[in-house]
Amino acid sequence: MAWSVFSGLKNSPSASAGNANPSKRLTSPAGPEILPQFRSESHFQRLGHLSGDDSVPNTPARKKQIRQDDHRRARNRWRKRTIKDRTKDFLDAITDRNVDAAETAFRAVQKELDRVSTTSTIHKNHAARRKSRLSRRLKDLKVSLAS
Fold first, then answer.
1. Whole-angstrom distance, CA of residue 124 vs CA of residue 91
2. Which of 43, 47, 81, 147 is buried deepest, with most CB atoms within 10 A?
3. DSSP alpha helices (H): ranges in the chain?
4. Could you give the CA distance from residue 16 to residue 7 in angstroms, rounded to a whole number?
């Protein structure tokens, strides 16, 4: 049974046969795309291969870079999630027309946006624009309740 493998592997039947168009995946004549001893595509996506390239990183530096990217991505997603949660609390208070809760929630959102904008997760102008829009909604609530 002949298996087609990565062209870089030696001692493989297809590599010695002079296969002109080597397959990037390990396939058998019977048809299974990936053998069980190799990792699934979800593993490659988890490693940072989101572009569809299913090759394994072959240098220690690239493996480390993928680990660092995963940590940074998780940290940035956490930061953005906290901003969304705080904003949702603020918008719920605005919907309930509760000025005290809205002011407290606005301070929390403002604090979180200022903290995250000092990192590279979001730009400071993006944070300023969001704070401005939220403060305008708080001001509109106060004006509507005063009249």
1. 22
2. 47
3. 13-16, 41-46, 60-95, 99-117, 124-146
4. 10
Q: What is the DSSP string of 66-92?
A: HHHHHHHHHHHHHHHHHHHHHHHHHHH
Nearest of 92, 111, 106, 96 to residue 139 by alpha carbon: 106
Question: How many residues are recorded in the chain?
Answer: 147
Tokens of 10: 């030696």
The sign of the torsion formed by the CA atoms of 74, 77, 79, 82 equals: negative
- The maximal CA–CA distance of the chain, rounded, in angstroms, is 86
Q: Residues 1-41: pLDDT tens digits?
A: 454 444 444 454 444 455 555 444 444 455 545 444 544 45
Nearest Cα to Cα of residue 117 among 88, 80, 84: 80
